[in-house]
Design goal:
0% strand; single chain; mainly alpha; globular
Length: 217
């Protein structure tokens, strides 16, 4: 019985598990062959604090806990970017209800954060610029770096997915999601601002449409 349940879980989550394993392997290979040869183009925590003039206390806390270089490298350049791909897939599948489209958009989203400015890459097809001229092989993925931006992007995708997964918003769910979005401010101020604007807008629209059930459940 337990074996059949395990097989069912694997079957029902084949694409998310496959995506996670694929990107774990891919990013591990990337780290092995590219990490020491690229210019890191993502802001470290101190730089992000200086630029935004704001201290994200949760990110500072995580950075202090996982201060070992090996752990920082694994979580920021492999584990959380891989988890982000999973939740991107789940978000697209929730919206589109199609595995192939969801997989395609997930790979497109991850590749769009790779080591070249993606808008220039697209423009090169229109303006007859050599695609190779727009590629910068000396920089890392934009989603890499711990805790910013790898953990902040993962957490944003996680909370966003949980909100769109909910069909009805009870009073309890509203309190929980409001707390999670406010919590986001202490991970990354910009992501927190974007997330809270989205949440306030969604709640406003659903309340106006009378789709929010303010019950005790």
């Amino acid at each position: 019985m337990e074996t059949s349940k395990f097989k069912k879980v694997l079957f029902d989550n084949f694409y998310p598990i496959g995506l996670f394993l694929f990107f774990i392997i891919y990013f591990l290979i990337w780290i092995k062959f590219n990490f020491n040869s690229v210019i890191l183009n993502t802001n470290d925590l101190e730089t992000a604090i200086r630029i935004s003039n704001y201290k994200p206390f949760i990110s500072i806390f995580l950075n202090n806990i996982f201060s070992l270089e090996l752990l920082n490298l694994f979580f920021g350049y492999c584990f959380f970017p891989s988890l982000t791909s999973v939740f991107l897939f789940l978000i697209f599948k929730r919206i589109l209800a199609n595995d192939i489209w969801s997989l395609s958009l997930t790979f497109l989203s991850i590749s769009a954060s790779e080591n070249y400015p993606f808008h220039k890459f697209l423009i090169s097809f229109i303006s007859d610029i050599d695609v190779q001229e727009t590629i910068n092989i000396n920089e890392n993925f934009e989603i890499m770096g711990f805790p910013i931006p790898a953990f902040s992007i993962f957490f944003f995708c996680l909370v966003f997915y949980l909100t769109i997964k909910s069909i009805k918003f009870s009073k309890k769910k509203i309190y929980i999601f409001t707390f999670l979005w406010l919590f986001m401010f202490h991970i990354h101020p910009v992501d927190g601002l974007v997330g809270n604007l989205y949440w306030i807008g969604l709640i406003g629209i659903l309340f106006f449409q009378k789709k929010i059930e303010l019950n005790k459940s």
